[in-house]
Known about the structure:
The chain has 2 helices and 28 strands. It has helices spanning 4-8, 108-111, and strands spanning 24-33, 39-44, 50-54, 58-63, 68-74, 79-86, 89-94, 98-103, 112-117, 123-128, 133-138, 142-147, 152-158, 163-168, 174-178, 183-187, 192-197, 204-209, 215-219, 223-228, 231-237, 243-248, 253-258, 263-267, 272-277, 284-289, 294-299, 303-311. The two termini are 33 Å apart. By secondary structure, it is mostly beta strands. A hairpin with a 5-residue loop joins β18 and β19. The strands form 7 sheets. A 4-stranded antiparallel beta sheet has the order 1-28-27-26, with no helix packed on it.
Amino acid sequence: xxxxHCLSGKKPQKPIRNPxxxxxxxxxxKNLYDHSxxxxxxxxxxxxxxxxxxxxxxxxxxxxxxFQCEKTFNINNKLLCLLEFEPNMILIGNDKNNIELRNINxxxxxxxxxxxxxxxxxxxxxxxxxxxxxxSASTDTTIKIWNYNSKQCIHTLNCEYSVLCLIKLKNGxxxxxxxxxxxxxxxxxxxxxxxxxxxxxNYIKCLCELQNGNIISGSADNTIKVWSNKMPHYDLKGHxxxxxxxxxxxxxxxxxxxxxxxxxxxxxxxxxxxxxxxGHTDLVTGIIFHSNGYLISCSNDRSIKIxxxxxxxPNSMY
Length: 318
């Protein structure tokens, strides 16, 4: 007996080629497993390794060349956010309302350098302001400005609602996302809020500043907003649950990670999703674009996934 298409008299169809495929796409090349709990945060380090934090209370340092975990530090608290302030010196925001400074170039017993205390609830995010100052965002409705060298809190910015995310802007200011769905712009000369951005319908979980100065925000309302000159410019819609993390790939593309277990790649010029990456089995908590060209994601499913960027030719199938 022949194949079905011969019996039906129909010729096999040629694969349909997209005449305008996206210029880039990503494919999964590696899964990393070593955490025993939900992974909450991920950063790229100065030496191109990555660091991940989990509610298993471990900080792990990974070599992206060998895809191996090189070091593990028991922090004794659930890790919520990470910031490398200077090479090998990592600030860790935790669920015990403080910030630990760890030297990852030493043994575990010698790694803890200092604990910054002052917040009354969880520390949700950290941002470096300059070579001496950093800021912390907390559920206690404050942003604290810390002197890294003197180990002192030098100012507290009081907000009405919990501060869930925080980034430093290219102009030296800060941008914060809040539980009440607002975004606030702060200038650091007088430590004042100079603008409040409204438009989202649920809390703001992530922020990113694009190379052109536009701000993008991800919200529990399932949308990403692009802001231009402090005004809503356009929305990116496609996730069916909240947006948890954002990163810029280049001046044309961004990536978003969601509670819907997916990662989406967006073309900012076309204002549309060009690829959806699936594979995580729980909410995707963090995503970074590594300097070697990898997209790296972490999830509540306890895995880290490495996605390789590919340049697509005009005649490639997609």
